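Students often ask what a 'structure token' actually looks like in practice. Rather than answer in the abstract, let us consider malonyl-[acyl-carrier protein] O-methyltransferase, a protein of 302 residues. Its sequence is given first.
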Amino acid sequence: MDAKVADSYHIDKVRARKSFGRAAETYDAAAILQKQVREEMLSRLDLVKISPQVILDAGCGTGAASGALLKRFKKSQVVSLDFAHPMLQKTRKNVGSAGLVSQLKALVSGAQHHLVCADIEAIPLASASIGLVWSNLAIQWCNDLDQALQEFHRVLQPEGLLMFSTFGPDTLRELRIATNQQTGHTSISRFIDMHDIGDAMVRAGFSAPVLDVERFTLTYDDVKSVMRDLKSIGAHNATDGRARGLHGRGFLQHLETCYEQFRENGKLPATFEVVYGHAWRAKDKPKFDDGVSPVTFKPRNK
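Now compare that with the structural description of the same chain:
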């Protein structure tokens, strides 16, 4: 891949943090897909026997998953981590907590729920201190997937579980095509293929990762409604290659025209490809002689 092209998809974390911070009050009403994926992930926990003492909700948003995990694991501590401070403030209102903490205080204060403002790529928690790392539709905002997965592996205890979801390459394909027809700038983040995520999990040290994919299609009356929902959840274009300044009326009119090619049954679709993954951190032991670990991809039963 050309280095210049790759750089254009680099996430401006300052912009992303501000966008999510501004969306803290509107997020829950618009996060329909996030709720569906969260419920699917929770149902998958029914198949797992685990009693973690400490759970990390990495990229917690407004805390819906943190609250659900507290109810499910009544004896566990939950650490809600997000890089947007207003999201943590909303989490505190929604879930209740011991307040904003830093570094290792989250694990030694004795309270059941804690808030940590930090980036997934640099988690300020001790190594081998977490029994379950949970992350719902958050790691797509990382610039270095390997670094994020290595951090998850580092904070997990041996035999601890990682469960996550993220977006795949077909996400918002209609919007990407419509905007690419009129501008040379990046309009949508680059999302990583499931197989590449599996390879990164193996590089991070996870044993026999399991991944599968599901596609969702949300429908809208018009393009403005698509953009309004993305704004409400804080999903602004934060790539370095984005167009700078405000878009004029001509841009929006052309976007509407280009997007119309996808209208079906009177509605405009917005496709989301969701990748689910889980893996255990193995007990510390020597690797295979050839350095190879298996990756399993499961077809989804319809």
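One point worth highlighting: The longest strand covers residues 207-220. Ask yourself how you might have guessed this from the sequence alone, and why that guess would often be unreliable.
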